[in-house]
Amino acid sequence: MPQMLKTRIAPTPSGYLHLGNALSFAITWALARQQNGTVILRIDDLDNARFRPEYLQDIFETLHFMGLDYDEGPADAEDFLKNYSQHLRLPRYHALLQQLVEQGVVYACPCSRKQLSVHTGSNCHLHSCRHERLPLQQNGTAWRLRIPEGTEITFNDQLLQTCTVRLAEEIPDFVVLRKEGIPAYQVASLADDLEMGINTIVRGEDLLTSTAAQLYLARLLGAEAFTSINFVHHPLVLEPGGGKLSKSHDSLSISEMRKSGLSSKAFWQTMARMLGWQQESITDAQRFLDRFRLEELRKMSRQELQAK
Predict the structure, then answer these.
(1) 6-90+197-306 falls under which CATH superfamily?
(2) Whether the Cβ atoms of residue 37 and residue 71 lie closer than 8 Å to each other
């Protein structure tokens, strides 16, 4: 019997959500609903430096505005902080990190980004920290994963087909534990996907390197449940000027658009125009679901969509 699809909407409360985030939510939701699958709302809140209560609230307001439901996860911001925050799952993340320590594949690095910038690309292996064997518990150090030179990760994507990421060049020796003692995104995301039984992950094409990093971690840890996940990397949404949409541009956020009078109907019409479906009278989530065809996104893969 085929496995039922189980996926997640996984925003970070590090800024107000924009059309790119909304597109990813819509694709995730539609893919799951078409297959009678399960959607989990998982909010990735480990980044204390950028967390704001208003950003957390914006996630719930945006999902409500879009008309998207989910099957598991917090009902509201208060419920999230009390019962679903990633900080409640820290022991699981540290257990995974301990497995990496026992394999001898992590090393301590006290260097700043500026110091590391002189060792870009595959030259990262020349950085002295990689060979100094500093104590892992030394204050002010991050833990980095030792990536052998030439390491490449190849995986299949439902839109992009076969993908190959030169991991050692694109994100060499990436951080798995930050200097403040907080597990890094790659570790927490992998641990959560494994614990929640996720078998389908929808992401933007800009996160191909993150997928490769997590696959590398999963292979080190023997986590076959993750290495067999179905991936869907969808096209990105660009700003009107051509740059990638960013949470740093609040004027392009859905929150600001709503304050300027954007209705739910107009929002869905905008989404339809980005996908070339403007003739389809898409005015709400249900009509988006009725129109949604994953194979049509395949034709758009490796492209960018214009926010209009």
Answers:
(1) HUPs (3.40.50.620)
(2) no
119 contacts 74 by C-beta, under 8 angstroms: no
Cβ contact 234:292 at 8 Å: no
Q: Is the pLDDT of residue 122 over 50?
A: no
Per DSSP bridges, beta strands 6-9 and 38-41 are: parallel
| Helix locations, the chain, DSSP H | 19-34, 53-66, 77-83, 90-103, 113-116, 129-132, 167-170, 185-196, 208-221, 224-227, 254-259, 264-274, 285-291, 294-300
* Chain-centre distance for alpha carbon 264: 25
Alpha carbons 114 and 112: distance in angstroms, whole number: 5
SS3 233: strand
CA 305 to each of CA 45, 225, 229, 258, 285: distance values in angstroms, whole numbers, following the listed order = 28, 32, 26, 21, 19
Task: Say how far apart CA 33 and CA 286 lie, in whole Å.
Answer: 10
Strands 236-238 and 304-306: parallel
Report which of residues 50 and 108 the model is more confident about: 108
> What is d(CA 213, CA 172) in angstroms, rounded to the nearest whole number?
10
- Asked whether 147 and 130 are in contact (CB, 8 A), the reply is no
Residue corresponding to tokens 């992590």: 106
Encoded amino acid at 115, one letter: Q
- Where on the phi/psi map is residue 154: left (φ > 0), alpha (ψ -120 to 50), or beta? beta
Cβ–Cβ under 8 Å, residues 73 and 38? no
CB half-sphere exposure, 226, CA atoms < 13 A = 23
Q: What is the pLDDT of residues 81-99, one digit of tens each?
A: 999 999 999 999 999 999 9
